[in-house]
Automatic annotation (TrEMBL):
This is Mismatch-specific DNA-glycosylase. One of its GO terms (molecular function) is pyrimidine-specific mismatch base pair DNA N-glycosylase activity. Keywords: DNA damage, DNA repair, Hydrolase. Residues 6-160 form the Uracil-DNA glycosylase-like domain. SUPFAM superfamilies: Uracil-DNA glycosylase-like. One of its GO terms (biological process) is base-excision repair, AP site formation. It holds the Pfam family UDG. It comes from the Bacteria. The keyword Mitochondrion does not apply. InterPro entries: MUG/TDG, Uracil-DNA_glycosylase-like, Uracil-DNA_glycosylase-like_sf.
Length: 171
């Protein structure tokens, strides 16, 4: 299985950060490509996109100010297969990426992603009180994986906070 390309640019409104690519994402070369993953539905229902995009359109979201990366590049069936060493290396690479591109918001799609990145535990959903990278809002949202047992409506409500934040920050 091969890693998938990041979609990065300077001045992003949101950089979405996942655990790592799924097997399906590796096969297609696109983020959140597993049919059971709710990401595209969630961000649309949260008001972040004007329509529901498809995984193969992930690069088009750069035009909306949204980018994509993962804490670990190696595709796996589940995040449980990621090693401590991979998380450690991914954390450093991710910090460098966020410092370099400086998105307004670094949105961690999964509490575990943020825990591995920040070294913190016991965190709440939404914006974090203290950022690892200064002047970048760190936002924690639930994983959009179909394996997550949280109701879609609850996850959408958390993602909707991003929509409100972006509207408030741009006037």
């Amino acid at each position: 299985m091969k890693p998938i390309p990041d979609h990065l640019d300077y001045g992003l409104s949101i950089l979405f950060i996942g655990y790592n690519p799924s097997v399906r994402s590796s096969e297609t070369g696109h983020h959140y490509a597993n049919p059971s993953n709710r990401f595209w539905k969630l961000i649309h229902e949260a008001g972040l996109t004007p329509r529901k995009y498809k995984p193969e359109e992930d690069g088009d979201l750069l035009k909306l100010g949204y980018g994509f990366t993962n804490i670990v590049a190696r595709p796996t069936k589940t995040a449980a297969e990621i090693t401590k060493e991979e998380y450690k290396a991914g954390r450093l690479r991710l910090m460098e990426t966020i410092q370099r591109y400086r998105p307004k918001v670094a949105c961690f799609v999964g509490k575990g992603v943020y825990e591995q990145y920040s070294g913190r535990t016991g965190i709440e959903w939404g914006p974090q009180p203290e950022s690892v990278v200064p002047n970048v809002v760190e936002f924690v949202a639930p994983s959009s994986s179909g394996l997550v047992r949280m109701r879609s409506e609850e996850i959408t409500a958390i993602f909707r906070q991003l929509t409100v934040y972006l509207k408030d920050s741009t006037g």
